[in-house]
Amino acid sequence: MTTTIEQLAGLADGSSVTTLLRFATAGSVDDGKSTLVGRLLHDSKSVLTDQLEAVEAASAKRGQDAPDLALLTDGLRAEREQGITIDVAYRYFATPRRRFILADTPGHVQYTRNMVTGASTADLALVLVDARNGVVEQTRRHAAVAALLRVPHVVLAVNKMDLVGYEEKVFAAIAEEFTAYAGELGVPEITAIPISALAGDNVVEPSAHMDWYGGPTVLEHLETVPVSHDLTGCHARLPVQYVIRPQTAEHPDYRGYAGQIAAGTFRVGESVTVLPSGRTSTISGIDLLGESVDVAWTPQSVTLLLDDDVDISRGDLIVPSGDAPPTTQDVEATVCHVADQPLTVGHRVLLKHGTRTVKAIVKDIPSRLTLDDLSLHPHPGRLAANDIGRVKIRTAEPLPLDAYADSRRTGAFILIDPADGTTLTAGMVGESFAAPEPVKADSEPDGWDF
């Protein structure tokens, strides 16, 4: 039996062992995401008394008879005034069975990029659908983002079942349509649950109005869905964040390479390679929280000591010598464009991968995904805000890149505007759920020609 990082942490401090689930909510405007989250927090008794009193007071001021549970997550003034979610709201709560980090993401089309932020580290995506409207374009967009980000579990919560008479056939038709669409995207696991967030049906407690449904409630599924954060068996990767060289009388020759282990395990005596230079050495020591240890694993922050004085700086990647990723200057990836300004062919950008940032040029945009039928629009020439597409990028320096399918940590990158530091695009290296079109052989643009 493999011991996870969370279990080791629990054993170390003597506390009971509970696992952690990161999940993100998504859905169209007015589908009831914030109400669901509020209901989940309220009915699981994860709301402090003063918070509930504040929500009751705010609801009464609006003339509402019952507390508006959406106010538990919609904290911005603009959100409360408009009754919508604008930014990602993070909430932390726990039950006796599991700890949770919840990202409540917006439903508006222009805020789809916020879902990318919330779902990028999620183990589960909870997609809401209004039972009266069924699967709409934004539902398909959120399913595509979840598939693109390789979220392993997707829950379809068909909300507002009370407004359709709790009809089984309404739920079944929506669940069938969504499952077929998400299946084409390659989503590995889909669970459909009929709910009423406002009335509390099947959120924490089973519904008395839907005896035809025999599956779990939302909370029961969240507590029991299998997740593992044990990345110790993955490809070992340490992006170097800082080189420690005190040069003091106490440590005259100390040279350590500090960073957070992105994946895998490192051991003293192990042969390692530094990328992109390709130089090799052997781990002579590992410092963790001021103590020397023989082994360290993700997500610990450590300092590695090597036998040789290798030229290593911030942005380099330390990997096992027998398990090094390919190094390349030609990056092909699927991206979600998040900036208001479009991404165009010939666009000069900065590419940030791990702790390394290099100059780059967008050489081609082979395709843009059409969400209605999952078709590819070939060579659009640009990607607008919230567009999903394929890109080919040429970097000024070689980068060691894992495929995103192999590692969500070291297979991801962002594109940055070099003029003002704005994040332009979130990228995932390698193939996605949609195969890219062949890259056209155009003439190289002037400027940063690598």
Blueprint of the fold:
Layout: H1 5-13, E1 19-27, H2 33-43, H3 49-61, H4 77-82, E2 89-94, E3 98-104, H5 112-119, E4 124-130, H6 137-148, E5 153-159, H7 168-185, E6 190-194, H8 218-224, E7 238-239, E8 242-244, E9 256-260, E10 265-267, E11 271-275, E12 279-288, E13 291-293, E14 295-297, E15 301-306, E16 317-320, E17 327-337, E18 343-344, E19 348-353, E20 356-370, E21 375-378, E22 382-383, E23 388-400, E24 412-416, E25 423-429
Parallel strand pairs: 1-3, 1-4, 4-5, 5-6
Antiparallel strand pairs: 2-3, 7-16, 8-9, 9-15, 10-14, 11-12, 11-16, 12-13, 12-15, 17-23, 17-25, 18-22, 19-20, 19-24, 20-21, 20-23, 24-25
Helix pairs in contact: 5-6, 6-7
Strand content: 25-35%
Shape descriptor reads: globular
Overall radius of gyration: 24 Å
The total of beta strands comes to: 25
**Oligomer description:** single chain
Distance between the termini: 49 Å
Mean pLDDT: 83
The number of helical elements comes to 8
Proportion of residues in helical segments: 10-25%
Your description of this structure?
With 450 residues, this protein is α+β, with helices and mostly antiparallel strands. Helix content is 19%, strand content 33%. The chain is built from eight helices and 25 strands. Strands 7, 8, 9, 11, 12, 13, 15 and 16 form an eight-stranded antiparallel sheet that branches. A six-stranded mixed sheet has the order 2-3-1-4-5-6, sandwiched between helices. Strands 17-23-20-19-24-25 form a six-stranded antiparallel beta barrel.
